[in-house]
Amino acid sequence: MDEIVRPTRVEVDLKQLTENFRLIKEQTSPSKVMAVLKANAYGNGLVRVAELMQELNADYLGVAVLEEGILLRQSGINLPILVMGGMLGNQIPIFLKYDLTMTASSIEKLNQIDAAADQMKVKATVHLKIDTGMERIGVHYYNAEKFLEASVKCKNVNVEGVYSHFASSDSSDLSYANLQLERFLEVLNFYTKNSIETPIRHISNSGGILQMPEANLDLVRPGILLYGVYPSNDVKRTLVVKPTLSWKSHVVYFKAIKPGHPVSYNSTYKPDELIRAVTVPVGYGDGYFRSMTHKAEVLIRGKRYPVIGAITMDQIVVNIGKDSSFNGDEVILIGSDGVNSITCEELANWAGTIPYEILTNINTRVPRIYR
Ligand SMILES: *Cc1c(COP(=O)(O)O)cnc(C)c1O
Q: Is any ligand 1 atom within 6 A of the Cβ of residue 208?
């Protein structure tokens, strides 16, 4: 199997993923855990990660879009699945058909869901989305009472949960996150005030799990932390998780380059002495960002070497100086050889982005291998 796939592959360490999940579960107990698997499980592979979460008895899965939920159902996943993104009214029958939990983010949507469920003679499961300060989707906290009232009246809707989302729980300054939590709890008073059973309450993402245990409530929604990456540099590392994803390739070509002979498109790099260089079959067409040009480094045979010249769609050139390397040598783009490592945080710095974008951009052209 290994031999027939591309020399470039993502390796996912399922043991480490299990370990990270257990640590999060332990730290946030007795809250339920919703494993967030959107964007191909942060590059780790949607279906395989979902299967593992099912084996580990995760309480819930979270995805962003309808198609992700459908793929999981078609792959035999029967855990409850919340689709967290915004949706259109004409998608509602498909949500119902696949037994996916909907995010209701307005009274209008709620009524559309109620009507569709009535027509299909099923009960729709929804989580109500409250906007406590993200201004993305959800009913504003200051208008939420009418929304909750309307939700109670929908006969064909089971309001299983009510949730919100933090804008900056991974920051060292938690004042805005605390304000959001306060607003959310205030909204939730509706239930006790009216003696209505409170649905599952949730607001916490990775940053919240690490820094705001008081926000765990009934369920937490870890995304990036599950994959062993911290949501920011500033966040307190109250849990020790380790990366699950490595990105590796292999040397496919070796050459010497004469001084003054430019490398790659637009000739932006010229060696000033004779160098040895290897070509590695990965590029921005795989999600190895072109913006890392003149910054990126890789590991070969336990040493760090710079990528030279423009990163192209499918190939990069690495300067190994006076060292030796041979066709087939492993090249680590993200990961560790036991002694040295290159993290997705480093790639994020080179590309001027955040680790989330690095992980979610390793595209499906790169085969995933599970260990
Ligand atoms: C992406 C997402 C999460 C997970 O965020 P992380 O920072 O990766 O933990 C949780 N909730 C919602 C609504 C999301 O969109």
A: no
CA dist., res. 335 & res. 10, Å (int): 10
Do 310 and 268 contact (CB within 8 A), yes or no? yes
Give the pLDDT confidence of 153-194 residue by residue, as tens digits.
Answer: 999 999 999 999 999 999 999 999 999 999 999 999 999 999
CATH number, domain 245-370:
2.40.37.10
| Structural domain boundaries in the chain | 31-227, 245-370
Identical fold between 31-227 and 245-370: no
Which residue type, as a one-letter code, is found at position 13? D
Q: Is 226 in the pocket of ligand 1 (CB under 6 A)?
A: no
pTM above 0.70, yes or no: yes
Active site (catalytic) residues: 38, 265
| Residue 211 Cα to ligand 1 middle (Å) | 15
Q: Which CATH superfamily is domain 31-227 in?
A: Alanine racemase (3.20.20.10)
Q: Which of 293, 296, 300 is nearest to 277 (CA)?
A: 300
Average pLDDT in the chain: 97
